[in-house]
Write a structure and sequence with these properties.
Length: 352
């Protein structure tokens, strides 16, 4: 596979860890730091250390895994560790982990001393096809996802397919939701290819194509003023469900599980508002329901979910904005959805 070029940075696919070492050596950094969590410290960091242990001036910063760590308190902890380790403006932060590490690490680096360089080494399918590419950094505040953040591009991204072998099946499915989304909004052929593939073990070629789709969109619209909003399909409802589950469930939904629910609801909204054919709606619902377990959403929760949606960063002038499908592989941005319509979509999901 070829290296992809993004917004002034490369995305490496072949021999990515070797390329990481080359990048560090050529970067003339005063020192570098690896941000990780307990899972990637156990399963992925040893692979990195085999090749960087002979390099001087690096330290490990470890945080707890999970969305609960993506907040200002953990960010302050990362900043304090950088201060304790005497990180200067010529330092490099290597974000080794999933989406939480990419989002939090990118935000911490982009704000520390008004910005130090950082790179992503995504270790989950979700972070490879979504969080690591595009320059969005962020943390959650008051259980509102990614409400605080910056648009700051990494200096490079290193995709190591072998890391996916360390993941449980549930985490593979979490990342798969974003891959399905890429097909639904941009490429019907890719959607059909995914449907006919071994989705429990996505190939490197499928992952490459997913990243290629997202990369093309973010290059055209880095700051989400237009076409990049297409990547929000499934996320207005999905983020609300994810937030609700995180607060209320002992075993919260993964990001991808919540986005799968959001895509079903927003596909229904697409049928109601944007002309998505009923045959396409049924195809989307059948495909997603065959992969993801049903999540119970009581009717009494609809207003609570709507109140969460009202705080979504994608809203404009107090109105809830959704990206909707006109057909599989085609979408329309900036669709205002009412409380009644959003609750109807939740009811639709609940009755499936």
């Amino acid at each position: 596979m070829n290296t992809l070029s993004s917004i002034n940075y490369p995305i490496f696919f072949d021999n990515s860890i070797t390329e990481l070492v080359k990048f560090i050596k050529q970067g003339d950094y005063s020192r570098f730091f690896v941000l990780t969590d307990e899972n990637t410290a156990k399963h992925c960091l040893p692979v990195i250390r085999e090749q960087i242990d002979d390099l001087d001036n690096f330290d490990i910063i470890e945080i707890n895994s999970g969305e609960e760590s993506k907040n200002i308190d953990f960010c302050v902890g990362v900043w304090k560790m950088l201060i304790d380790f005497s990180a200067d403006r010529q330092s490099l932060l290597i974000n080794l982990g999933g989406g939480v590490i990419s989002d939090l690490g990118g935000f911490a680096a982009s704000t520390y001393k008004r910005g130090i360089d950082f790179v992503h080494v995504p270790t989950t399918l979700l972070s490879q096809v979504d969080a690591s590419v595009g320059g969005k950094t962020g943390i959650d505040l008051d259980n509102i996802k990614n409400i605080i953040g910056t648009f700051t591009q990494p200096k490079a991204v290193f995709i190591e397919h072998a890391f996916l072998k360390t993941l449980p099946a549930r985490q593979i499915l979490s990342g798969l939701a974003e891959m399905l989304k890429h097909g639904l909004i941009m490429d019907a052929g890719y959607w059909n290819l995914l449907k006919n593939s071994d989705l429990k073990n996505p190939s490197a070629d499928l992952i490459y194509r997913s990243i290629e789709i997202k990369n093309k969109v973010v290059i055209e619209d880095p700051h989400e003023k237009g076409i990049r909003k297409s990547l929000n399909f499934g996320h207005t409802v999905g983020h609300a469900v994810e937030t609700y589950s995180l607060v209320n469930d002992e075993n919260p939904l993964t990001h991808g599980e919540a986005i799968a629910i959001g895509m079903i609801c927003e596909a229904k909204l697409s049928h109601m508002q944007a002309g998505l054919p009923e045959t396409a709606l049924n195809e989307i619902v059948d495909t997603i329901n065959s992969l993801y377990p049903k999540y119970k959403i009581a009717a009494s929760c609809y207003k609570k979910l709507y109140s969460i949606m009202l705080k979504d960063k994608k809203n404009q002038s107090g109105k809830i904005n959704c990206t909707l499908l006109t057909n599989i592989g085609q979408c329309r941005i900036d669709n205002v959805c009412t409380e009644e319509e959003l609750c109807e979509s939740l009811s639709y999901y609940s009755t499936l």
